[in-house]
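Lab notes, practical 5.
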Amino acid sequence: MKSWQHGYEIDYLKELASKYEHYNSFTLSPFVQVKKNNIAECLYKGTLKIIDENTMIDVTVSKSVGSITMHGNTVIAKKQKDDITFTKLTGNKDLLKNKLNEYIDNNCWLYVWAEDKDINDFAIDCNFCVVGPKITTFGEMYNIYYRGKPRPFPTIDLAEYESIKKITDVNVDLIDRIAEKLNTLPEFTNHYSNYNKDNSWSALSLRGYTSDPSFITKPIEMSDKWKEKNKDTDFFLQDTPLYEQFPEVRELLEDFNHIHRVRLMRLKPGGGELERHTDQVDPDSGGSFGKLARLHYPIKTNERVIFTVYHTNGSPRVVHMKKGECWFLDTRKLHMAITGGDEERIHLVVAVIPEGKRQVAIIR
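Output from the prediction step:
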């Protein structure tokens, strides 16, 4: 017997794990899947409550005050000491409801998958009120519910709930003039994302953190190992020589005073794919005041270039961004893209800080 089993037979742990097949269907991370090893850990700690052979729930008690975040530093609620948290629900709903009601006099939190409609209906039936979403770095989304004594919750900027939005139409002539110069570009740099399926996604910098157009990295997003390796390099925002070839881009962005990265981003044709994920490593990104908003300007596209972006209630929205349009995309939310057509997709992707009532309001 292995030490991680904590004295439980492996067949018993496997049997319990098999009851979480539906729950695990909503997971993308191996760290949140319910498997034999974390079942053993929960049993050892006494948090996993086995109601019957098919019905289980994990119950923990907060030992201190802690924040619940939607993503990054966006706090949607505060847990207090002795609050009860329910997770890992599976099995008979009536039995689960009875177990939840054993804690009717406590302040309780309930974590369920946002994309699982039945379990969300169950939460409401148990008199829990939805507080907001929690989006993981692996591309999963919980809905967080609360039941208990009334307490204040933080006021969240409405822009934090926006996933994708068409901002405006733009001058198509400018877009066409940019497109005419695409064949003069050097080779695009493969993007370093873990979700870049088959190396389909690549980019070039018109404005970035070095003068090299092939440097598409934002240093703050990188690992500690990378930062240590590059600690002697002075990274700062600057135009690359490639920007001088595109005065049309400057004209396109003339309404913005605070422009950060400007990149041309390519997705290969014939099934080039950016798999479902979130980008939460950049603490500056977002749609609220003072944050870096990411804008997409399609330069070269076709009708089979599809973005799927998930709203904060867990529902997907499928969009095709057309040439001559500008879209806001909050990449901290779940998103994915695929090029189904035979032509490559190239977007101009710009990070800007909206300022003034007009620019900030368009994201809301």
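Observations recorded by the TA: The radius of gyration is 24 Å. The chain has two domains: 3-155, 159-363.
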